[in-house]
Write a structure and sequence with these properties.
- By secondary structure, the chain is of the alpha+beta class.
- It folds into two domains: 53 residues, no CATH class; 186 residues, Class II aldolase/adducin N-terminal domain (L-fuculose-1-phosphate Aldolase, 3-Layer(aba) Sandwich), CATH 3.40.225.
- 35% of the residues lie in helices and 14% in strands.
- A six-stranded antiparallel beta sheet has the order 7-6-5-8-10-9, with helices on both faces. It has a two-stranded parallel sheet with strand order 1-3.
- It is globular.
- The structure holds zinc ion (ZN).
- The site of zinc ion has 6 residues, from loops.
Length: 276
């Protein structure tokens, strides 16, 4: 029996598993297994498709409240939120979401201030005096449209917002890694923050995008957990930074359509497109 069966059977898929797969072939990744970065790199080099599957979109981790608090702290440290800006939520189950409270500073939250709601946004035994985020309808719209999304993060990214006000979009392909990890980043029409207009603004975009800029307001990103969604938020602001620098420099061409097509093919092969 081969020491490296073509279908990996461990929860961690390593480089050796990928090397045991014929070039140009396909490797079925066990449910919810982790693929090491080196394994991904080797798969890319050998033109091997990694077929990954995630089970439950609901997160089962015990310290999920701690993860949400940590992401709030990171967003504040990075200047993505000020005062009571921003919100974070996680899908706990078929009819349960855990969300940050309205009106609190997300950089200094306590785990016991988070609020569980049903899929209509109704709080379940909330801490006294606290209500779920006013952007709950936008989060719930995403969970309804994207069964595989388990976390949603919203922040007021300064550069992305400034560019959206200036009419500069982030969907031009300048950075190969941004094309692979995020794909095109659309910008919504203007909508009043915390209103149902935000649901309308993202409704036709969120099915195909993991990161969206909300014009004059901020951005919303999704992921398999709060940190995954947070990393996309960082990537959006990083791209906004580069786009601003290019504008200041007054030069710099986007990638060609052929280059973009190759990168989008890589994105598809790496399983990084929006999981529905
Ligand atoms: Zn907001």
């Amino acid at each position: 029996m081969s020491p490296h069966p073509p279908t990996a059977s461990r929860r961690l898929v390593a480089e050796t598993d990928v090397r045991a797969t014929p070039r140009g072939g396909r490797l079925d990744i066990p449910q919810d297994a982790l693929v090491t970065p080196l394994a991904r790199q080797v798969a890319l080099e050998r033109n091997i498709t990694l077929r990954e599957r995630r089970t439950a979109p609901a997160l089962q981790r015990t310290d999920i409240r701690g993860e949400i608090v940590r992401v709030g702290q990171l967003m504040h440290q990075k200047g993505f939120i000020v005062a009571s800006d921003g919100n974070i939520s996680v899908r706990l189950g078929a009819d349960r979401v855990l969300a940050t409270p309205s009106g609190r500073h997300k950089g200094f939250l306590r785990p016991d201030e988070l609020i569980t709601t049903d899929m209509d946004g109704r709080p379940i035994n909330p801490p006294p005096g606290l209500e779920p985020t006013s952007e709950m309808p936008m989060h719930l719209e995403i969970y309804r449209q994207r069964p595989q999304v388990a976390a949603v993060v919203h922040a007021h990214l300064p550069l992305a917002v400034a560019l959206s006000i200036a009419g500069i979009r982030l969907d031009e392909p300048f950075l190969p890694e941004a094309v692979i990890t995020l794909g095109p980043i659309p910008t919504t029409e203007y909508a009043i923050p915390s209103s149902l207009e935000n649901v309308t603004a993202i409704r036709d975009l969120i099915g195909q995008h993991d990161a969206i800029v909300l014009r004059r307001h901020g951005a919303i990103t999704v992921g398999s957990d709060p940190f995954d969604a947070y990393m996309r938020m960082e990537a959006v602001e990083h791209k906004a930074h580069i786009v601003l620098l290019l504008r200041l420099l007054g030069q710099g061409e986007p990638l060609s359509s052929g280059q973009v097509a190759s990168l989008l093919e890589l994105r598809r092969r790496l399983g990084l497109g929006p999981a529905t």
